[in-house]
Amino acid sequence: MYGYLRPYIPVLKIQDYRIYRSYCCGVCSQLRADYGLTARLLLNHDMVLLALLADCLAGREGTTVCKACPRHWFKKQCMMRHTKGIRYAANVEVILAWHQINNYDPWRLNSRAKFRFNLEKWILKKAYRKAVSDGRQIDRLLQQERDHAAALEMAKCTDYDAACEPSGNFYGALFAACAPDESAVKPLRRVGFYVGKIYYLLESAEYFESDRLSGRYNIFVLNGLTREAALESAKSRCNMAAVELARAYNLLGVKLNRSLLDNIIFLGLEQTVEKAGQKQQRKWEMDEIT
Q1: Which domains does the chain carry?
Q2: Sign of CA dihedral 131, 171, 189, 89
Q3: What is the pTM of this model?
Q4: Mean pLDDT score of the chain, rounded to an integer?
Q5: Which of 54, 118, 148, 200 would bridge 167 by S-S if both were Cys, CB 3.0 to 4.6 A apart?
C-alpha cells in the first residue's frame, strides 16, 4: 500500500488504529463496489487521509459494517461505509491512477512487463470512464496541471518552487473540495498545496537514480546534485513545507478523530520525510500489528 501520508503506528492508539483501518477497508471496498475488483489495488494512504479529513471536518461518522475481505482470505473486516469522503476518495483515486499510468514510459520495460502494463492500462480504462463521469472537474484540473508540469519540464526549470507548483495546485484543489463551509476552503487549500509539494519532492528523491540514468526530468538532477545532496535537499524542503502544512491544519479546528489526524500530520509525515529516497514497498503496514 503506497502513499506518503500515513500514521506512525508505534504510538498509534488502539482506538485510532481501528478507525484508520476501517477507513482503509472502506475506501478499498468502495473502489471494488464502484470500479471493479482490480480497482482495489489502487488503494493508498494519501487518499485514505483525504476521505478521513473530509468526514472529520463535516462531523459525520460513517456506518461501520463487518464484511468478508478477499485480501484476508475472506476473514470479516470492519469497514467504514456510506460516507461522502470515502466515495470522493475512491473517485479521485481512479482518475489520478489513470493519468499516472498514461504519464509512464513503458519503453524501458521488457516484453513481459510491457504486456502486464498494457493489461493494467486496459483494465483501468473502463474504471476511469466511469469515474470521470462523476469527476469531470477533477479530470480537467489534473490534465491542466499535467500540461503545466510538462511545460516546466520542456523549459528545463531549475526552480524548486515553480517545479512543485502543479502538484501543489492539484492537491490544493482536491483538499479544498472537502470544505464543509467557506471558512475552511483557504486553510484546506493550503494543506493540500503543501501535501502536493511534499509529494513531488519525495517522489523526485525516490526516483533520483533511475531518472538520472534514463535522462528523464528530475529537479535534483537538473540542479547538479549528487544523490546524497538531493536527499538532504528533499528532507530540508519537505520539513519546511510540513511546518506550513501544520499551521494550515491547525486553523481547521478539527474535533472528530483529532488524535488520529494529529498522528498522521505531525508524526507520520515526519517519519516519511526521514525515509526520503527509499523505494516504497507494496505492503500494508496495518497488518503488522494484527
Answers
A1: 9-280 (1.10.600.10)
A2: positive
A3: 0.89
A4: 87
A5: 200
